[in-house]
Write a structure and sequence with these properties.
86 residues, alpha+beta, 5 strands, Ubiquitin-like_domsf, Ubiquitin-like_dom
Amino acid sequence: MTIQLRVSGPRGEEKVIDVCENEEDLKKITVKQLREKITRELEISADIRMVYRTEQLEESDLLLSYGIRHMSTIHTLLMLPGGIIG
């Protein structure tokens, strides 16, 4: 069974993407690998942050460490340049 995730894109789009072939492969996928797949699938060239439930996903972590499984929803946010001028 192909493992898929729902992705809520930064422009309001929603898409289901194929992540891997099975549960065993899912145990090895990092957040960084998922980010690369999402930016390719949604054709995003800007930096994005990803959120699952209420947690921001850290690139070096495995998806498994967040409890992400088949058909979980990942939310993406564009990281825009800027800051406080003081």
